[in-house]
Amino acid sequence: MTALDCESPLLTDLYEFTMLQAYFDSGMNDIASFEFFVRKLPPGRNFLLAAGLEQVLAYLERLRFSANDVDQLASTGHFSPAFLQSLMHFRFSGDVQAMPEGTVFFPDEPILRITASIQQAQLVESRIMNLLHYETIVASKAARVVLAGAGRMLVDFGLRRAHGAEAGLLSARASYLAGFTGTATLLAGVRFSIPSYGTMAHSYVQAHLDEARAFASFARSQPDNATLLIDTYDTEAAAHKVAALAATLRASGVAVKAVRIDSGDLGEHARRVRAIFDGAGLQSIGIFASGNLDEYRVRDLVAAGAPIDGFGVGTRMNTSADAPYLDCAYKLTEYAGLPRRKRSEGKATWPGRKQSYRRYGADGTMLGDTLTIEGDTCDGLPLMRPCMTRGRRVAPEVPLLTSRAYAAQQLAALPAALRALEQSAPYPVTVSTALQDLARAADALTVQASPTAAPR
Q: How many CB atoms lie within 10 A of CB 53?
């Protein structure tokens, strides 16, 4: 998929356009508010970490229809010439409020609100969900790895099994936001200013008839980044070869930085390799491990005291393998100045423009949130902040490093039970009386009365 494909306004669901045609035909284009939220946490999760806002804002800024886009829509036969012509002047001119990237959040709390004419706010639904959903679920998984890693180096290794090129790039960004040290994906490193890391593949070792010669050649070629892969044949035998080479390499100004182990019992291999290096006086050579890792394996290796200095984590992180999707939604909460809500069984929503307030203890630990209507003042700090007004950003782009530091603060403020990998008691999110009253008022406005379902 090319960048042009990802930026096209046609990267959406057909029903967004069929609804726009119907709104156009009916003359409906009053101001609407839509909010993106998650209905419930995936199994085993205690929190989520908001990510993807920067990509959403960039998408809204650039959203345009080319003549070719309009021609392609016309070819479907679903749309009138007058509607198609109106798209040539389309610009997003609405307001955006959102939780900053890196904010910890919980079910029913909106992390983004779009307030714009209903045609604008409706059109952007699918792509906004696509961006926020993916980066949020990867950042949330990566945050668990960060917590399990207890300060060890963590590198994103996920590109080759990512679900497409964009996913590979955005998972590198999301994992760095969550606290990873860097990425092996070069373009992500360049595009997002993320530190890039690379070692060697087994093929490099196999291409040489002599494993020691492969190590020596690579180290001399990469004197500032000599990390050697030692499990192609026999891990401990390779470690002895590295130890024997180290003095020769050092004499030529090359220091072996680390070795990587990618298979077998990583903890046991690491202990044996560490003993080999320490016995040779090579305490400076680090040990890096990879191979189908996730937060549980990282936690177990750390807890067992394995002498591993860093981990490469890929597939299970950037596919969020144990929880590959969020039960998320982008729903209309207000139209033409009136609250709107869905009352579908099991999918009822809270109406109106909402805000979340978070309370902290004296030690900085999160105590609980209150979900309420915009304008209702509650104890705590408001989490939703203005991002765009009338289609323009209210402030410059937030540097990724800034969002990364904020995410670290958020994770540190989580109650200890929520930082654990095991599922804990739910974090308290209280629904205010004002919001409950608004829900009853919204129900009273409905032309067709139906049983009231408690929002969830």
A: 25
**What does the alpha-carbon distance between residue 295 and residue 105 come to, in Å, rounded to a whole number?**
20
Identity of residue 38: V
Helices (H), 312-399: 315-318
Q: Which domains does the chain have, with CATH numbers?
A: 3-132+326-358+372-428 (3.20.140.10), 199-290 (3.20.20.70)
Looking at the DSSP bridge assignments, the partners of residue 112 are: 36, 98
Q: Is the torsion defined by CA of 84, 90, 96, 98 positive or negative?
A: positive
- Rg of the chain, C-alpha, whole Å: 26
Contact call for residues 96 and 392 (beta carbons, < 8 A)? no
Q: What's this model's pTM, rounded to 2 decimal places?
A: 0.94
Residue 6: both structure tokens together: 């990802």
What is the C-alpha separation between 312 and 307, in angstroms, rounded?
A: 15
Residue 148 DSSP symbol:
H
- DSSP-derived secondary structure letter, 398: P
Q: State CA 59 to chain mean position distance.
A: 16
Say what the alpha-carbon torsion angle 141, 142, 148, 153 is, to the nearest 10 degrees.
Answer: 160
C-beta separation of 64 from 9 below 8 A: yes
Q: What is the mean pLDDT of residues 302-330?
A: 97
CA 260 to CA 257: how far, in whole Å? 10
Who contacts 255 (Cβ-Cβ below 8 Å, separation ≥6)? 223, 226, 246, 249, 284
Q: Which of 45, 116, 118, 129 is nearest to 423 (CA)?
A: 45
Residue in 306, 228, 229 with CA at minimum distance from that of residue 272 = 306
How far is residue 142's CA from residue 289's CA, in Å, rounded to a whole number? 17
Please state, in angstroms and as integers, the Cα–Cα distance from residue 131 to each residue in 135, 147, 353, 454, following that order: 6, 24, 22, 29
49 CB neighbour count, 10 Å cutoff: 29
Coil, helix or strand at residue 326:
coil
**Tens of pLDDT along 326-377?**
999 999 999 999 999 999 988 999 999 999 999 999 999 999 999 999 999 8
Q: What residue spans of 75-164 are helical by DSSP H?
A: 81-87, 118-123, 125-149
